[in-house]
Amino acid sequence: MKGKRFKPEQISVILQAYDNGKDVNTIVREYGVSRATFYKWRQNYQGMDSKSLKHLKSLEEENRKLKHMYAELALDHQLAKEIIEKKL
User: Fold this and answer.
1) Is position 1 within any domain?
2) How many whole angstroms separate alpha carbon 70 and alpha carbon 58?
3) What is the tens place of the pLDDT at every residue in 3-59?
4) Domain containing 78: what range?
5) Measured CA distances, 49 to 7, 42, 56 (Å)
6) How many domains does the chain have?
7) For residue 24, what are the contacts with CB-CB under 8 A and spacing of at least 6?
8) Is 3 domain-assigned?
9) Is 2 part of a structural domain of the chain?
10) Which of 37, 45, 58, 88 is the most exposed place for a label (fewest CB within 10 A)?
11) Spatial separation of the C-alpha atoms in residues 14 and 24, rounded to whole Å
């Protein structure tokens, strides 16, 4: 089951609440995130504002798409190579 998706602005607000002195337990209950997710966000995005966080997310998405495209092309190339070798 997939969990909720938080927008970069929401992640930034949650991390700023922690920086402003809110307790982790309060943040976890209030926003409905797990402690592990909160600490993972804190490790990855600490100190970023929402604009830079949004930019990072878009770059990660673009990177994911490019990796997928590369995997498909590599598979096609390998298949073409095998076909050529069988004909010779």
Assistant:
1) no
2) 18
3) 668 888 888 889 999 989 999 999 999 999 999 999 999 998 887 887 888 898 899
4) 8-87
5) 12, 12, 11
6) 1
7) 18, 35, 38
8) no
9) no
10) 88
11) 10
